[in-house]
Design brief:
about 260 residues; mainly alpha
């Protein structure tokens, strides 16, 4: 099992390193920019530039230096980057089937479910490591650039952001793993789950603009990760993490059943 997991890390080392460097660079730049803005003028004045419908999503993040430095954890592009990375990493079993590698692996006395467990451990640990690295980079950036007299983000807020971002990426990674239980091509699994993730994010976003969609938006995992609400202290953290965790566990269970039953 350890050899299989290490092999997965070796194959994905370059994309993981590239994403890690990008996230670290963005976090350092964001804190440096927030410090510069705080030194020149009141950061809260930026919130007035945000349209009314966007205030609950990001307006609260522009009220203080501390809140502004946490934008990395719920910025739409970065969240989608991490989600899509999880989708890619978790589609590994489909890639093994497509390349014929699964025949070589299972020719040895290796239980079939090990291939799912290998990818699950690989995907989950990779995503968790990236998100924790973002939090550590935030702390380093605050030490380097944090201006005197400006409060840092509360530890509970950062921990909550880390938990939500990790779980929502695991959620879609688990769905991608389940899709790999049927897909014979890796690209098919990635495309199906990746496009679904974008569609569900847009659904949740549009629900903030059009009230009739708010009842439908509850099906979107992104509905349970609102960075602005976490900063404002209005998020139902227990419910949100429970929903994301339940989806993840259910998708993982489906992945094991589907891969065990599929014709290889």
């Amino acid at each position: 099992m350890i050899a299989l997991v290490l092999r997965s890390f070796n194959r994905a080392a370059r994309p993981l390193a590239a994403v890690a460097v990008l996230l670290m660079a963005f976090q350092l730049t964001l804190v440096a920019a927030a410090a510069a803005i705080a030194a020149e003028r009141d950061i809260a004045s930026l919130a007035q530039l945000v349209p009314g419908f966007m205030q609950p999503l990001i307006g609260v993040a522009l009220l203080t230096f501390g809140s502004m430095t946490t934008i990395t954890f719920f910025d739409a592009l970065l969240v989608m980057l991490i989600v899509q990375l999880a989708v890619y990493l978790a589609s590994e079993p489909a890639g093994d089937v497509e390349s014929g590698l699964v025949d070589l692996l299972l020719a040895r006395p290796v239980p079939r479910h090990w291939l799912v467990t290998r990818t699950l451990v690989f995907m989950a640990s990779s995503i968790a490591s990236l998100v924790v690295m973002m939090a550590l980079t935030l702390w380093i950036a605050l030490v380097m650039f944090g201006p005197d007299g400006e409060a840092w983000p509360a530890p509970r807020v950062v921990v909550s952001m880390v938990g939500h971002l990790t779980l929502i990426a695991w959620c879609f990674g688990a769905v991608s793993l389940a899709a790999s239980g049927w897909a014979r091509r890796r690209g098919s699994a990635i495309t199906a789950v990746g496009v679904t993730a974008v569609a569900l994010y847009l659904l949740d976003f549009l629900a903030t603009l059009w009230r009739p969609l708010r009842g439908v938006a509850v099906v979107s995992p992104f509905h349970y990760f609102r960075g602005g609400e976490i900063l404002a202290g209005t998020a139902n953290t227990t419910r949100d993490l429970a929903v994301l965790g339940t989806i993840t566990i259910a998708a993982v269970a489906v992945a094991y059943v589907a891969f065990r039953r599929r014709d290889l």
